[in-house]
Structures are given as C-alpha cells and as structure tokens.
Prior knowledge:
Layout: E1 2-4, H1 5-17, H2 23-38, H3 46-56, E2 65-69, E3 73-81, H4 83-101, E4 103-111, H5 117-125, E5 130-135, E6 157-161, E7 168-172, H6 179-187, E8 197-198, E9 213-214, H7 220-232, E10 249-256, H8 264-279, H9 295-307, E11 309-311, H10 314-321
Parallel strand pairs: 3-4
Antiparallel strand pairs: 1-11, 2-3, 4-10, 5-6, 5-10, 6-7, 8-9
Helix pairs in contact: 1-2, 4-5
Amino acid sequence: MRIKITELRKILEQKLRLVNLTASEARIIADEYLIGELKGKKSHGIYGFIHSYKKRKTKKRGHFKVFKNKPAFAYIKGNKDYGQLVADYAIKLAIKKAKKSGVFTVGGGDVYAFLRPATWAEMAAKQGMIALCFNYGGGPLIAPTGAREPILSTNPIGIGIPYKPFPFVIDMATSNRAFWNVRMARAFKKKISKDWGIDAQGKPTTDPNKLIAVLPFGGYKGYILATAIEILTGPLVRTKVGKSTRKLRGFLFMVIDPTAFTSRKEFNKDVKKLIRDIKTAKKVKGVKEILIPGERAYKIEQKNLKRGWLEIEDSIIKDIRNL
Length: 323
C-alpha cells in the first residue's frame, strides 16, 4: 500500500502524543522509525514502531538525568526513559562539547530501546563531526562461536564520517542479520537464510520459529567484536548484560572534531580521495558499481523523499492505524 510520508509522520506523532509525550518528543521518536523506513530498513522502520509502541504504552515512563557533565565526558542515567530521547540529547551534547574540546564521550544506561545507533552517528556527520555510536542490543541473542545458546546481544555499530553529498555511515549489527529481521520473518511467516542462526541443537535453521540464537558475522571475529561492544555498553555504563540482562539498554557515543587533529580542508580532501579510489577500483565480473557505506540507504531515501510516498505492507498500515 502507498502512503504519503507526511501522512505517515502525522500518524506516528499522533500515536506518541496519546502516551503523554510532548510534540517535540513525539517528533524525535517518530523520526528514527521514519528514517529507517525511508532508507529501506523495513525491519527498523514502521514494523519496529508497532512492536515497540505496544510494549512502551503499557509501562510507566521515567525521565533521564545527566549525572556527570565534565569537559571531556558525560554520564546519563536513563531512568527507563525512551531511548530516542536520551540518544538525541546525548549526541547533541557530544557534538556541542566536541566542538570545544575536540573529543567528547557520552555514556548511559537504563534506557528503553532505540533502534539504530547510525541514526545518531549520521546526525553528527551531517554537522561535520566524526561519531562512533554503540548500544547494547537488549538481551541474549547471539551464540558465541562454538556455543549453542544465546549469551551476547546483537550490539549494533553506528559510525558516521562527514562526506558530501552524503555522510559515510556504517550501520550494522554484530550478528549476521539484525534480530528485527527474524521478528519480521516470524510475523510474515517467511523462511530465513540458514546462516542467520541456529536451533536448540545448534544446527542451522531456515525456520525463524525454531531459531534460538543468531550467529555473529564473520565467525569468531564478529563474536569477539560483539563481546567488546557488550562490555563498553554494559559494565562500563552500569548496564546488566549477558544472562543477567534486564532488557534495558546501555550506550556509548564518542564524537570527534576532525580539526582537533588536522585541518578541515586536508581531512575532506583525503577522505574524498580515498572514496574516489574505492569507487573507481577495478571491478569483478558482474559488478556495476562499488558502493560505500551509507550510499545504498542514501539513494533509497532520496528516491522516497522525491516521490513523497512509501510502499508499506497493507497489514502494517492497518496495524499502525489500530494501535
């Protein structure tokens, strides 16, 4: 079903206002889901909004508080607030402070989920800053290499680097596929690729209902990266992880002003040259274009914005209207 972007935004914001959020808070939260849909990341778009909204509207909301705000770092206690509101405040604080100090880090815990750390990394990159954004995935989902039960979470990575006409953006989970894709497969009764995860016997499965753990990308390399990020977004920021998780999230954002190390002109010139080298590299047979991180999502987003509407499954539109 086709739906205008403006209409979809209105629906999202109206639903959020019904749970006592202010107009500005509703816009911040709606933005993340809408951006996911615009970029073609359907598992992190409107489907994700429906799933999260149903859970959040039955729970009492807290309000985050900044516990530490030093020249080089800050710590935020989430108090079970909406993750998007905490992340939005955190990245804006980090950008502002990094412009003064060169580098600024914000950590926090005890927040409800935000979906894509890349949302906030891209926000910084659009303001000429480098951002490294990580968050705890929210519960045991990944089986460590050699295990047949979930211990680690998917612990996504968002990295934004300024570049024009669009930022260089890394947006990835440390699992082969983000767990939201498994949820969507279950909801729409679709099979999954056998490299996504394993069943209770530790064997690959194409049935999302039999999957008990997803697998780390790249074998043991993904496993060790997931572990490192779980420590940075768990114990470091006072969030329970592993088997002791409480389904709340921790996060760590670092923002770097490139001019702390080099001139803006030299940085932009060298990044541009590197990307040009990548884009013009000799291609293997059958490859038409080499894409850089964030390029595919940017092109999809621009196409959607230009036409002014999105194609979304009828059942999802029905569900969101009936929330």
